[in-house]
Amino acid sequence: MVRSAQRVPLLGARAAAAMAGFVEPGQEAGAVLVQVQEDLHKLKVKNINLKEHVKSVDIGDLGTAIGRTKFGLRKHAENYLSTMNRPVLTISSTDDKEVHSKEPPKWGLHFGSSQKQLILPRVPVEPMTVQAYSKSALRISQSSQQQVEMDMKIMLDPENIDNKAVLKQQNYETRLPLITKEKSAPMCRQKIVKGHTVSNLWGFPASCYMDSPLPLLEEDITKGVLSLTEQRFVPPAAKITLQTPPVVSKAAPSHEFHRQHKKSAVGEISSRVDPENTGTIAFPNSKEAIYGTYSSSKGNIAPLPPSSSMVSARKSKPVWTCPAQQLESELQILSQTQPLQMSPRQSLQDPCFDCNIVAYHGTIDRKAPGFLAFKQHYCLSWGSIVFFLEHTEKLLKDYAVPLATINSKKLVEVASDFELTENPTKSDILSVIKNQSTVEKILNRPGQRYKGQGGTEMAATKIQATWRCYQARKTCVHFRQQQWASGVIAISWLLHNHMARVKKTLKESRQRHLENFYIRAKHLAANWNRIRTSRRTIIHIPSLGYSQCIREHIPDLALQQNMQMGRLCDILDANVDVIYICPLHLSEELLQYYNKLLGLQAAVRSGNPEDMGDLQDRFKILTPEAINSFPKHHMCLATQLKYSPKTIKRIKILIQSRDAYIIGGVPHKDDLAVADMLSVPVLGSVPEVAHLYSTKSGSKRIFASACVPTPPGESDIYNNEQMISVLSQLIIDNMEVQRWLFKVNDEFGGNGTAYCDIISHLKCYHWVQKERQRYSPEIWSKKWAHEPALVKISQELPGLLAQHVQPVNEKRFPTWEKFLQTFLSQGGVIEAFPLSENVTNLTVDMLIEPTGKIKIVSSGDQLHADGPLRSSGTTIPQCSVDPAVLNSLCLKIGETCKSKGVLGYFSVDFVTFIHPQTMEQQVWATDLDLCYSDQLALTQLMLYVTDGNLDCRSSRFEVSLGSKKMKSQRIQHEETKTVRFIHTWCHVLGIQPSPISNRCAVASSQLRHSSLSVIYYNVLLQMCKAHGVGFDLQEKQGTVFILYEDQKRYRLGMITIGEDLQGVLMTFARNLFIIHQEISAPNMQGETNFKMAIQGIKAILGITAENKLKLEEEQPLKADALKE
Asked: Which segments within 895-1009 are labelled E, that is strand?
């Protein structure tokens, strides 16, 4: 900045410095003069002392010097006071470099610090050199005045074209550069020298001698220059034009982003006067404008660039500003949106003044007048304030914040809440900063901490800490991985050992169960003849002990296990009590139904319904409590009973001191565990044996060992190549077979069966027939002749099977791929379907007693209500195969099973048909189930309600009628040898024999109808009674229902008993039709198999009618042959 040119004569060392130099802010001229006089006094005292001790010194010369100094000091003091009383502010025209480069004295009076600045309105001009007039020119000519006015006009509007033209025409020492919209170059900061703006040093009160310049009020500016001159704010010699300031003292509106950061060229001009009345226009230092600084609420005064830039503006070009300087400048402008200065008069009038403390690069100027006034005002709480400021400075320095404006009021409020022992947080510090958003952005800028003080050390520390953290983390992760791995290994090892111990314990317990099973089986065999004729208890456990994967796919497993309620009818023997383990909770309604049904025994024998008894003490229906504990585990009934200690305990009490044995369902290992817990034998096979020979492949081995006829086929197929090659060979060996069956080993009830009519879809079939005709039968029987045909068939079969195989249970196996996956995983068989369209399936139930005796206990022809390959019911007794032939086959199979260790009840499935080529009846054994069957349970119920006898050797079902008998029946029975034998013995004993009548029965346990669930069982029975559906105790014929459960109620069983097969089938179909009509609406038929059962019955009736006609035609021929 420009310094005032001051020339004073050198009167003495201290005096010259006092008159021409500067003093520090706050010192007054009177104080300086007093100090000089004190120095002279001290020098005089020293002189006196020196006279006393040193005689060789010329004391006279020293006294003369002191006198001259006093005289010069007095003279210059008068000149100084005269200058202060009549100041004139002029614009200097000198451009002497020597004046501007002269260094100020080291100490002395500072003219600008103790006086007041003249603050002119801000003019948007670039830095420039201002020309001052000479001090001798007290009056200015009119032309010179016009030139000054033109200069001021050019300064106010440098962009005007006319002003530019004037500058080009006239020769001015002042050269103003064109103002552009670019930001000004960074300015140098130099100390400024300020002139005097008051007329008298002692003309103003003490409050005027403050460090801050005296601003012009708005009302003073509006009065004009004459008023300012009269009030001595402006020297008379100064030629100054005042205009309305561009910044009005009002609330600043919000500007757009690009306007907020636009630099303003407005500055403040302060006039200074030296003692020789040389006036200059001085600009305050930018640093002083920032630090120094009361904040006024009435105006905003922005700082001007340094004067050094103004001096050299015409010589220099715009300088490029670095981004950091631009950010600093922008932050400085943002931080000065509120005023930073206040007049001393306003400061005294408002003691609770609002000032801003500016921290530049994290440093607060603690010597600034505003800061000192703020410190004096809050001296009582200064300890907490300075503590807070220290932390604020540290934070700003740490993050290299270029500019931050601190609100003093908030500072006092926040600092008062802190104690010296409590450090303020970052949010606390930000709360007192006015440009909080800008500072906060800087603080949150990544890496900003490393740009502040100690940033290098902090960065190094951070890098080291990060590296050490990485190493420690890596080591920790590796350690934790090892620890986790060791833990996993340890837990796995513990689990392995525990599992090994459990397996060993289970193996030992099962081995013990098996050994006890054999021991009890031997005891049962040795005492069987006594036990079966004495008082005994039979424990029926209708468990389906299939493997877990099969049980999971059985819908309503509990209901499926409860379809053998006919086991209760073992109480037909007076020496037998029954304990039935039920997999479902039965309601009181069902229990009362079975109490009444089983109580018919006496009424059936007498034919009088009034003779019904109560047999509740003869049978018990128990439900294991574990069925509620494992609702979704698909456990078989034996397993649930094993985990039901209360039920086990009750069974023990019921069989105490009595002979008892268990009759199970599909054998399971837990059957042996339950038997061991109850200490009773099991009338059945070992589970391993039963599972081995109950599979489709196992049954094939039994039939092969028994030498009974079986369908053409192969067993134990476990891979796709084997299946294709085997099927190809079977097709070549059996060209007449149309349909081939695929059966999964472990499935039951036709669920794991699929069929395919291969011949009708095999494209190379005719070619194979031609190949066969080319060779003689002997040559064709050789394998080499089949090779071309095998290749062609093997190539065609995979695609043919994928398209045309039809699974029986489409819900379980919707596609061939899923069926094939199960087929190959469990293994299976491929066998031929019978060659005839009329095929009859029949089931024979057999018993191998513990003594080894083999008995046929039931036989019947199958009904198919769910397709041709799934059995839904039976007609008892069977009448499709000659009993002698059937008995022979069954005994062979029984002997083979006994040799394999099979014990107890089992059933054999056969298929019979008339061969189309030989026209002879063929009987094939197709399946073997080593368990108690549904047909046997239905047979037991049929025998119970009729008190009849089923002779399976002759396939006759006979019942004895009461005293009321039909004539035709009596004549029919008298013709038989059995009836004659009975009549003979009755005559000898004197007893009236009862007439014997043949009966047939149709029974089914697989009837289902979704609409059954909408009515209760008592309503169903009343409805059937209204339609004449019931049972006649005297005639021992009619219909009996088997009810399984009362929750879902969509399944039931039914037995219809009559005199002949045709009549029984018609009655059975009529009953189904009545029930269907009563429970179904025309538009809601429901999901049922009633219709398919009726259609199957119609087909059987048609075949029966044909057979009856053939029989009637053959009888006369036989009679004629006998006559001849």
From this structure: 904-914, 921-929, 949-951, 956-960, 996-998, 1000-1008
Tokens of 275: 């003692």
Is the dihedral angle over the CA atoms 24, 25, 29, 30 positive or is it negative?
A: negative
- For 327, residues 6+ apart whose C-beta sits below 8 A from its C-beta are 402
CA distance 672 to 670: 5
| Count of beta carbons in the 10 Å neighbourhood of residue 16 | 19
CA atoms within 13 A on the CB side of 963: 4
pTM of the complete model: 0.60
Half-sphere exposure of 671 (CA within 13 A, CB side): 29
Structure tokens at 373: 């006034």
Distance (Å, whole) CA 123 – CA 246:
7
Nearest residue to 174 via CA among 151, 141, 150, 146: 151
pLDDT, tens only, 679-701: 999 999 999 999 999 999 999 99
For residues 80 and 63, give the distance between their C-alpha atoms in angstroms, rounded to a whole number: 26
Between β-strands 536-540 and 576-581, what pairing exists: parallel, antiparallel or unpaired? parallel
**Alpha-carbon span 790 to 794, nearest angstrom:** 6
- Are 245 and 221 in contact by the 8 Å Cβ rule? The answer is yes
Q: Which two tokens stand for residue 543?
A: 């468990």
Its sign, for the CA torsion 754, 755, 761, 766, is positive
Distances (CA, A) of 727 to 634, 715, 732: 36, 11, 9
- Using CB atoms within 10 A of its CB, is residue 739 exposed (0-12), middle (13-18) or buried (19+)? middle
Phi, psi of 664 (to 5 degrees): -95, -165
User: What is d(CA 619, CA 640) in angstroms, rounded to the nearest whole number?
Assistant: 21
Overall size of the chain counted in residues: 1124
403-407/739-744 β-pairing: unpaired
What integer pLDDT is reported at residue 76 of this predicted model? 66
Give the other-Cβ count within 10 Å of 92's Cβ.
22
Cis amide leading into 275 (omega within 30): no
Alpha helices in 743-854 (DSSP H): 758-761, 765-774, 777-780, 787-804, 816-826
| Backbone torsions φ then ψ of 761, nearest 5 degrees | -115, -5
Angle subtended by helix axes 720-733 and 787-804, to nearest 10: 110
**Integer Cα distance of 304 and 819 in angstroms:** 95
Reading the block at residue 784, the tokens are: 């080499």
- Written as six digits, the tokens of 1114 are 């053959």
In whole angstroms, what is the distance from residue 738 CA to residue 976 CA? 45
d(CA 356, CA 372): 12
**CA separation for the pair 602, 774 (Å, rounded):** 73
pLDDT at 530: 93
Please tell me what DSSP assigns to residue 3.
P
Q: What tens digit of pLDDT does each residue of 435-492 get?
A: 999 999 999 999 999 999 999 999 999 999 999 999 999 999 999 999 999 999 999 9
Burial class (CB in 10 A: 0-12, 13-18, 19+), 1112: exposed
Question: Which tokens sit at 896?
Answer: 């083979």
Listed residue (330, 328, 303, 333) closest to 127, CA to CA: 303
The structure tokens 């009953």 sit at 1071
- Report the distance separating Cα 648 and Cα 653, nearest Å: 9
| Distance between CA atoms of residues 1068 and 1024, nearest Å | 13
Residues paired with residue 1038 on neighbouring β-strands, in sequence order: 1031, 1057
